Amino acid sequence: MSVSLTRTVRFTARHRLWRSDWPPERNRAAFRAVADPHEHEYECAVTVAGPLDGRMGMIMDLGELDRILAEEVVAPLDGKSLNDDLPIFAGGAILPTCEALAAWLYGRIAPRLPGGVRLERVRVREDPTLHADCTGPA
Questions:
Q1: What Rg do the C-alpha atoms of the chain give, in angstroms?
Q2: Which pick of 21, 70, 72, 130 has the fewest CB atoms within 10 Å?
Q3: Per residue in 45-58, pLDDT tens?
Q4: Which whole-number Å values give the CA distances from 38 to 5, 12, 16, 131, in the listed order?
Q5: What is the pLDDT of residues 12-69, one digit of tens each?
Q6: What is the dihedral of CA 79, 109, 126, 9, to 10 degrees?
Q7: Residue 138 to residue 128: CA distance in whole angstroms
Q8: Strand ranges inside 1-138, DSSP E
């Protein structure tokens, strides 16, 4: 029997949508208010799946999942500027959207999971009206 488990962590980070290869007026026309730096209280919900261990009654040790999320999500993102502090988003080649952030986090979390446990989804919620899901590598 395969079962899934979702753990949600929170972090606060700043970002702006701004392409460095565009002039300011084009950025402002395309991205409007989000062209200016602003902060979000993000939620990242990570869903893992795998066989249910009959002896323990779990997919994986929750403490291990919590450590992975603390190291791969909270530590590199909490209190940071996504544009300035994360090399993947520096320079504006890739914009720090919630979609791009979910994909980046998927690539960090998946290889850390124990054997037999698979990453089903990384959901990044930017605000109550917007979230993005990544369900696997492109």
A1: 17
A2: 21
A3: 999 999 988 788 89
A4: 32, 11, 6, 17
A5: 999 999 998 999 999 999 999 999 999 999 999 999 999 988 788 899 999 999 999 9
A6: -70
A7: 26
A8: 2-15, 38-51, 80-81, 118-127, 130-134
